[in-house]
């Protein structure tokens, strides 16, 4: 009986223990709150301490360089993920020293412009990815910047810099020398005694200093002192007239080059024999004397080369018409110069009776002029006169010719007008092209554009026509391109296009 009572008590205790365990297990599986599964998941995301994960950090060089060699514009791409939200991605060059930019939402892609801002050589790119919890992840990669400077090109890129541009705020230091092989400084004057002198002492020496600094930054660059031009060609004929005057002029050229850090001289005699400024002195003998003057300068520069081992350059700028070519002994003259820059512009202007084209690449069969000319005609004339094509550098204008009150027929082309002027490409781009009622028309026969608003007619060059001309000079195996003048394209739109086309 006592045994039965003990057994019953044991079984009841065991049953109570089992119930307690069951209740505990049941309660432990109940939700801790009334939160939905989605809300529970959100709480877990906010509490994560995992940093972002960078999946890929890649780049694409838009100039199609291979592997880790980049140039020009480079597209940087980042792919990342995180338990939280990614708040932003920062992109750095110079191993984090310079912020390129940041992106706050996908796709995490940004453009990195390396030319002309980044020096050639190794660059360490860095990215920092941040998430909404304030955590971050970093990654770096090495690339090699290889922007081809103009010195490596097969073609000359010659830019005239007008000294007076300084007065309008465009200094020599503003020039993008990475796109140029040569800078011609315009102008030095020819004095009454037949020697060359600075044209504007108030600014010239400051400009010369900045040109020397550009050469330090770009060792490939050559700088030339250009002598004469439209205004200061009066005394060329006297300087070339005798053996003594030619020697005096040549010695002054050498002295000027050495004293001011130039690599050579560019003669812009406008023009031998006839034409040019009304105050010019002209002689029939100029034709022969010009050859002799260049010969004497070449001999003087060669003598200096033997002394210091440095190369000195001699070039000329020349008018592109038949009459200009006929007034020089081109078949002999070219052997004394490194190259000839053809002024293949100002073919028509406000001095004409009708509106016309400043620099048509080809002649226009529909022209209303009894006489017409083109860039191609000028090139053909010099080649047929005995100048090797590789010694010809083709001029390209960074300005347009403006004709006021032009009649409305033919979109203003070959019409009567009343007065005119010239405007820089920078001014045309800012206030005329596609603005103030001006419409652009493409002249297919001549491969150049014009602007017209029903009253004012403008002949100019833009990226399309510049590309056509650059393609032409390559097909003709010319020596390169010359630009008049650099301050007229302050945003380097045309300069960059010429450089791009020549380096394809």
Architecture overview:
The chain is an alpha/beta fold and 504 residues long. It has 2 domains: 53-145, Immunoglobulins (Immunoglobulin-like, Sandwich), CATH 2.60.40.10; 150-395 and 465-502, TIM Barrel (Alpha-Beta Barrel), CATH 3.20.20.80. Helices cover 29% and strands 28% of the residues. The chain is built from 12 helices and 22 strands. The chain has helices at 2-28, 37-46, 201-217, 236-239, 243-260, 286-308, 322-326, 330-333, 375-384, 425-431, 463-475, 493-502, and strands at 53-61, 69-70, 73-81, 86-93, 98-103, 108-113, 121-131, 136-145, 156-162, 182-190, 196-198, 222-229, 264-269, 313-319, 339-343, 392-397, 399-403, 420-424, 439-443, 448-452, 457-459, 480-484. The protein has an 8-stranded parallel β-barrel, surrounded by 6 helices. A hairpin with a 4-residue loop joins strand 19 and strand 20. Helix 5 (243-260) packs across helix 6 (286-308) and helix 11 packs parallel to helix 12 (493-502). The longest helix has 27 residues, at 2-28. It is globular and about 90 Å long.
